[in-house]
Amino acid sequence: MKLSVVIPLYNESLFFPQLLEQVRAVPIEKEIIVVDDCSTDGTREFARQLQAGGGWPGDPLNTLRVFFHERNQGKGAAIRTGLREVRGDVVIVQDADLEYDPKDYPALLAPIEAGRADVVYGSRFLGAPHRTHMFWHFAANRFLTLVSNIFTNLNLTDMETCYKVFKAEYAPKIKLRSDRFGFDPEITARLAHLKCRFYEVPIAYYGRDYAEGKKITWKDGFVVLHAILRYNLWDR
After folding, report:
1. pLDDT confidence tier of residue 210, bands split at 50, 70 and 90
2. CA end-to-end span of the chain, whole Å?
3. Pairing of strands 198-202, 119-123
4. CA distance 153 to 173
5. Which of 86, 88, 79 has the alpha carbon at shortest distance from 9?
């Protein structure tokens, strides 16, 4: 089973090189698809060096491919670009900011490999190590997950998680529209409407605060709420 790792990338020059090494180190057959969303902090130049070198040194299979947006479009748009390039059997979305640990890949893949699941979400709230901070961010997350569950009839604990893993056969079936943080409720709704079998597994979470570069704000909560309603009620 080959894993396609889709990495939406925007202004992560400090963390992206380290994240890339962590992904490479996971002992699973994989391809890595990086989509730079018009970074301005040196990330784009580093990504172009990777592209020009055909990936990283010692990568004869060319398992790393890099794509570029000519204007900033948002995380959802970057993921949408990445999904069009998938060649593996299973897809995982990976943020570039080191909040999520690629060492969790085997646990995330296990329910799919066992034939029990079509979709696996990595939950930050099921008991694995996680940083305890930003109460209101946590509260908003739980509220939005609850509202999403009401419409999808799922019992997820963490709809907003980065780690969304699903069989690649579903990629062309989910017509994603969200450009920014509406991606999470939209893909959840799309996969639920396809009657996919969902599982959750606990994952580690090393969350950042805003001083450390976290990008999502309270205003994005309204974007997510609107997306929950839109993609469950009138844009199915």
Report:
1. very low
2. 30
3. parallel
4. 20
5. 79
The whole-angstrom separation of Cα 221 and Cα 182 is 9
Asked if residue 207 lies in contact with residue 160, where contact means CB atoms within 8 angstroms, the answer is no
Pair of tokens at residue 30: 């994989």
Q: Are strands 64-68 and 30-36 parallel, antiparallel or unpaired?
A: parallel
The rounded distance, in Å, linking the Cα atoms of 64 and 4 is: 10
- Residues 15-64: tens digit of each pLDDT: 999 999 999 999 999 999 999 999 999 999 999 988 877 666 556 555 89
Residue 205, Cα to own-chain centre: how many angstroms?
14
Quick one: DSSP state of residue 59? -
| 3-state secondary structure at position 202 | strand
**Tokens coding 71:** 């204007």
SS3 state at 86: coil
The token duo for 58 is: 């010692």
Q: How confident is the model at residue 213 (pLDDT cuts 50, 70, 90)?
A: very low
Rounded Cα gap, residues 68 and 47, in angstroms? 9
- Mean predicted lDDT score pLDDT of the chain: 89
Q: What is the pLDDT of residues 142-176, one digit of tens each?
A: 999 999 999 999 999 999 999 999 999 999 999 99
Distance between CA atoms of residues 76 and 13, nearest Å: 20
Q: How many residues does the chain have?
A: 236
